[in-house]
What we know:
With 193 residues, this protein is mostly helical. The protein has three domains: 3-63, no CATH class; 67-142, no CATH class; 147-175. The protein has seven helices and four strands. The protein has a two-stranded antiparallel ribbon with strand order 1-2. Strands 3-4 form a two-stranded antiparallel sheet. Strand 3 and strand 4 form a beta hairpin. Helix 1 (28-39) runs antiparallel to helix 2. The longest helix is centred in the middle third of the chain and has 28 residues, at 88-115. The radius of gyration is 26 Å and the shape is elongated. 3% of the residues are buried.
Amino acid sequence: xxxxxxxxxxxxxxxxxxxxxxxxxxxxxxxxxxxxxxxxxxxxxxxxxxxxxxxxxxxxxxxxxxxxxxxxxxxxxxxxxxxxxxxxxxxxxxxxxxxxxxxxxxxxxxxxxxxxxxxxxxxxxxxxxxxxxxxxxxxxxxxxxxxxxxxxxxxxxxxxxxxxxxxxxxxxxxxxxxxxxxxxxxxxxxxxx
Length: 193
């Protein structure tokens, strides 16, 4: 990590420039450094570095913003979508939001990894927040807390759920003229093998 005081005349407690390795994940980082360096050719070396730091900090605020805030917003949008009716479009939106969330968790891990004093975390450690989230998300998605029967009665007892599921699939496979396949298959890609 590179530390640089932005201004030599800065008062105590002023912020120091910190280069984040996360920034290297975007190609624009190199372009910002190059542009900033060329724009300050007449300055001495310490002023060039300070200017470059200012430009990088400004760019990073615009490009990355608050990762923690983006995670919370994306999680809330995903939760809202999952609570609504599921169709092909909603399924696709959920998939996209989940991928965005994965990327944000990776960025957050990269951010904290760079700050860890004792480098105990290894790349891909199963105890990181990212992997914990993926495992918890899968467990939460696979859990059935309750079901609404055809009479509008909510069932949450395990015995009732087992009986209801067994009856539902029994009726489904015993039906002589099944309908509603188009809606059920809407989120599934066609594949010919």
